[in-house]
Design brief:
By secondary structure, the protein is α/β, with parallel strands linked by helices. It has a domain of about 210 residues: NAD(P)-binding Rossmann-like Domain (Rossmann fold), CATH 3.40.50.720. It is built from nine helices and twelve strands. Helix 4 runs parallel beside helix 5 and helix 6 packs across helix 8.
């Protein structure tokens, strides 16, 4: 595998940066990661130009239009269209250009709103996703179906991985589009700098999430690329659930914030609970190594360094 030419879409983004770094670290010498502004993957002609120019043998498709609950609520049409069309083009053109292996990254948002915890991969189709991010989740499930259909009809080796909520260095800390951990870190940091005695958090605080350190996720993606060739989707996570109230308290303590935490119940919680069954990934050697407290410390340290 190390002699293969590997194309990483979204390779300059949050997760993509970790994946590219992990490939280099492991001795992969032919890794292509074009900047997103170079190719509009919603445009089929530009996708064809991308394949023609670089001739990849393996593709890790990470490019996506993503954001937190607020961004999903403001852009449901764009999130559905752009994520679906990018993936449809990347898989179809890749198949026609003779790509040997295609790694599609899915999302935990594809699971039904009310799913038995821990989420098992076979539960993906048992109900409708949580409404605030359903368009995004459905777009990603479409790509799972496409990969499986192309495997059946054309023998195309497409695998599908489902990471849980990610966090870590290089994350997006923009308050308009960020996910929960970077959003909380920024809010606490701004409260400390302004001298505010309170921080307001979206939702009731009663929801739960599972968080995976991005570097661990990158390692799992590379392990799957090397060792997994099945049609079934595979969860990537820690298998550890944490309540949002506990998460907020932990971040506040780590950053030295002593003020009040105010939960705005007029804002949505999103999916009530999230925690994955991660047993299937162990078959190809993946097991998360970074516990939440260690990962949060590293993420906060990186954020402060950037500031």
């Amino acid at each position: 595998m190390k002699s293969k030419r590997i194309l990483v879409t979204g390779g300059h983004g949050f997760l993509g940066t970790h994946v590219v770094n992990k490939l280099w670290e492991l001795g992969y010498s032919d890794v292509i990661a074009p900047e997103s502004k170079s190719y509009n993957l919603v445009n089929q002609e530009e996708v064809e130009n991308l394949y023609y120019r670089y001739g990849p043998e393996v593709v890790i498709h990470l490019a996506a239009r993503v954001g937190g609950i607020g961004a999903n609520q403001k852009n449901p049409g764009a999130f559905l269209h752009d994520n679906a069309v990018m993936g449809l083009h990347m898989i179809d053109v890749g198949r026609r250009y003779g790509v040997e292996k295609f790694i599609q990254i899915g999302t935990v948002c594809s699971y039904p709103k009310f799913t038995t915890v821990p989420f098992k991969e076979e539960d993906l189709w048992l109900g409708y996703p949580e409404e605030t991010n359903a368009p995004y989740g459905i777009a990603k499930k479409l790509l799972l179906t496409q990969g499986q259909a192309y495997r059946e009809q054309y023998g195309f080796n497409s695998i599908y991985l489902i990471p849980t909520n990610l966090y870590g260095p290089y994350d997006n800390f923009d308050p308009q589009t960020s996910h929960v951990i970077p959003a909380l870190i920024r809010k606490v940091d701004e409260a400390l700098k302004s001298g505010s005695d309170s921080v307001t958090i979206w939702g009731t605080g009663n929801a739960s999430r599972e968080f995976l350190y991005a570097e661990d996720c990158a390692e799992g993606i590379v392990q799957a690329m090397e060792n997994y060739n099945g049609a079934d989707p595979v969860n990537l996570g820690t298998g550890v659930e944490v309540g949002i109230r506990e998460l907020v308290s932990t971040i506040a303590d780590l950053m030295g914030f002593k003020g009040n935490i105010v939960f705005d119940a007029t804002k949505p919680d999103g999916q009530p609970r999230r925690c994955l069954d991660v047993s299937r990934a162990k078959a190809f050697g993946f097991e998360a190594r970074t516990d939440l407290l260690t990962g949060l410390k590293k993420t906060i340290e990186w954020y402060k360094g950037q500031k």
